[in-house]
Structures are given as structure tokens and as C-alpha cells.
């Protein structure tokens, strides 16, 4: 289970040093084998391999006849990269994925249960500002009655 937010720096070889709390979960759930893919929100999604496999299976079963479904499948499955975390807990992010998410030196990791989102720092700050600007009237219907 991934939760919490952490900011980390890519090293000189564009490797992401996974924080210990996430690293331990990745080792337990997938032996350090991860899948990193693009998200429509222009961040990256990092899944332990066992968490990604059922998602990929569902995606590839979708019809290509619906253009929106096909586009989403192309994005999520097309950009997916299998990556092994090294013994120092680092993940080498492929150039195409770094470019997609506009990742530079600082990367924000956001735990989201079964996955971790990887954000460009400025884009993450904009995402937080947008989340804070919601009014009670603008909440999606699925959140009606939800309390913290």
C-alpha cells in the first residue's frame, strides 16, 4: 500500500531513488520489478508488476473500435516499461517517459494505494492548487456524503 508524498531528485544518470517506505513495499509486492507508464494527467504511474498485470489484461481486452478507448489503451499499454529496481533502490526512467511527464531534477512521488504517481514538481503544485479550489457544490456525485 502506497501513501504519502515525497520529493526526490533524479541522479546524474536519470535514476529515481525510491524512498525506503515505497522501496520496501515494492520489494514485498513484486520483488522490485515495476511497470512505469504514462497517465493522461501527464504524470507517470509506477506499479509493482503484480498490480499492473491485471490492469494490462483488462486494457488489452478492450475493443479498438472505440477511438477514445483505443487512445487510452495506446497511452497506458504503449508507454508501459518493465523496470527492475536495482540493489540501491533506484529505478532508471526511460527518456520517453521522462519527456512525457516533463520530469527534470525534482520529482514528486504521490502514493495512491496500489501505485505511485511521479509528477513534475511544478505540475504537482498546480494539481494541489486545483484540488484545494473545489467548492462543496463542485464535488463529484461519488463523493456525496463522504467525510474524513
CATH architectural arrangement: 3-Layer(aba) Sandwich
User: What's the oligomerization state?
Assistant: single chain
Mean pLDDT: 92
User: Can you tell me the number of structural domains?
Assistant: 1
Given the C-alpha coordinates, what overall shape results? globular
User: Numbering strands along the chain, what is their spatial order in the largest sheet?
Assistant: 1-7-8-4-3-5
| Percent helix range | 25-40%
What fraction of the residues are assigned to beta strands by DSSP? 25-35%
CATH homologous superfamily identity: Transcriptional regulator MraZ domain
Q: How would a textbook summarize the main sheet?
A: 6 strands, antiparallel
- As for the CATH topology, it is Chemotaxis protein chec
Gyration radius from CA atoms, angstroms: 16 Å
Descriptive account of the structure:
It comes from Thiobacillus denitrificans (strain ATCC 25259 / T1). Belongs to the MraZ family. This is Transcriptional regulator MraZ. The chain has 148 residues and is α+β, with helices and mostly antiparallel strands. The protein has a single domain (5-136), classed as Chemotaxis protein chec. Helix content is 36%, strand content 25%. It is built from 5 helices and 8 strands, in the order ββαββααββαββα. The strands form 2 sheets. It has a 6-stranded antiparallel sheet. A hairpin with a 5-residue loop joins strand 3 (33-38) and strand 4 (44-48). It is globular and about 50 Å long. The mean pLDDT is 92.
Amino acid at each position: 500500500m502506497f501513501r504519502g508524498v515525497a520529493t526526490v531528485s533524479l541522479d546524474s544518470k536519470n535514476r529515481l531513488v525510491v524512498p525506503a517506505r515505497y522501496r520496501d513495499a515494492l520489494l514485498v509486492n513484486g520483488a522490485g520489478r515495476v511497470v512505469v507508464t504514462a497517465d493522461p494527467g501527464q504524470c507517470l504511474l509506477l506499479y509493482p508488476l503484480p498490480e499492473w498485470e491485471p490492469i494490462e489484461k483488462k486494457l488489452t481486452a478492450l475493443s479498438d473500435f472505440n477511438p477514445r478507448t483505443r487512445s487510452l489503451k495506446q497511452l497506458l499499454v504503449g508507454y508501459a516499461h518493465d523496470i527492475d529496481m536495482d540493489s540501491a533502490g533506484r529505478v532508471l526512467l526511460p527518456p520517453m517517459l521522462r519527456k512525457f511527464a516533463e520530469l527534470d531534477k525534482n520529482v514528486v512521488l504521490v502514493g495512491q494505494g496500489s501505485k505511485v504517481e511521479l509528477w513534475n514538481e511544478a505540475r504537482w503544485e498546480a494539481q494541489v492548487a486545483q484540488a484545494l479550489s473545489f467548492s462543496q457544490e463542485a464535488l463529484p456525485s461519488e463523493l456525496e456524503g463522504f467525510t474524513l
